[in-house]
Amino acid sequence: MLTAYDYSMAKILDTAGVDVLLVGDSASNVIAGHETTLPITLDQMIYHASSVIRAVSRALVVVDLPFGSYQGNSSEALRSAIRIMKESGAHSVKIEGGIEIKESILRILSAGVPVMGHLGLTPQSIYKFGTYTVRAREEAEAKKLIEDARLLEDCGCFAIVLEKIPAELAKTVAEELTIPVIGIGAGPFVDGQVLVTHDMLGITKEFKPRFLRRYAELDNIITNAVEEYIKDVKSVDFPGQDEYY
Ligand code: KIV
Ligand code: NA
After folding, report:
1. Are 182 and 162 in contact (CB under 8 A)?
2. Active site at which residues (predicted)?
3. What percent of the chain is predicted at pLDDT more than 70?
4. Atom of ligand 1 nearest to the CA of 194
5. Are 82 and 111 in contact (CB under 8 A)?
């Protein structure tokens, strides 16, 4: 699983064979440049999701319910999920949290909308946590996470994401559950992995958590290409004879 926010990138990722494309609210950071995921709106998520959907012929598309679109009550959560499904054509939604949002999850599922859960580091709660460090290192939080994971499966979620928790805890959860457990910074003992595409491609260079593996250094590649373009335009090397009419 990888994130996607726009048509062109989604087309490349889908063609490459990624099973699940997540239209993450991380668009708030990597696309809009906000410091947190909190500012992105439901309308903006729908815009990203509809762009991704137009590119996809194979992958399952999951769309994050953004901060403020589901916490109020379960009918608001359902309304938000329905807007995403109807206006973008997406296949499913993802929501952060456990027992606190049980009613919302059940209500969305009862409308026939598949729901992916998200536990551990849930970035929409960053102002409660205070930092982006590893979650559930202490017993009480680990115990609640296992209970929440069981609850999400019992509610009918089709999969869950575990973000930035100890690998041993993620292993316990993956063994407990039958639905797929997809990790980010949660170690190898899970069923799948997810990364933010712009991070794994080396576009967002400042972001360097331990769990991130960079599969390309697109920042350098783009910089070199653009520098070359500037040079060629200034020297009128571009456009060349076979590049104009
Ligand atoms: O928004 C996002 O990119 C996510 C993944 C990190 C799981 O929720
Ligand atoms: Na997210």
Report:
1. yes
2. 163
3. 100
4. 7
5. yes
Rg value, the chain, Cα: 20
Domain ranges of the chain: 2-214, 219-245
Tell me what percent of the residues of the chain surpass a pLDDT of 90: 98
DSSP alpha helix (H) spans, the chain? 7-16, 27-30, 42-53, 74-88, 102-110, 126-129, 139-155, 167-176, 197-200, 218-234
Q: How far apart are CA 24 and CA 182, in angstroms?
A: 14
pLDDT tens for each residue of 20-66: 999 999 999 999 999 999 999 999 999 999 999 999 999 999 999 99
Active site residue 163: yes
Residue 44 · residue 90 · CB < 8 Å: no
Question: Does ligand 1 lie within 6 Å of residue 122's CB atom?
Answer: no
**Which atom from ligand 1 is nearest to the alpha carbon of 24?**
1
Task: Please classify residue 214 by burial: count the beta carbons closer than 10 Å to its beta carbon, then call 0-12 exposed, 13-18 middle and 19+ buried.
Answer: middle
Quote the DSSP letter at residue 66. P
- Write b or e for each residue in 192-209: b if 16 or more Cβ atoms lie within 10 A of its Cβ, otherwise e: ebbbbbbbbbbbbeeeee
User: 2-214 in CATH: which number?
Assistant: 3.20.20.60
What span, in angstroms and rounded, lies between the C-alpha atoms of 41 and 28?
9
Enter the ipTM: 0.99
Protein residue with least CA distance to atom 5, ligand 1: 24
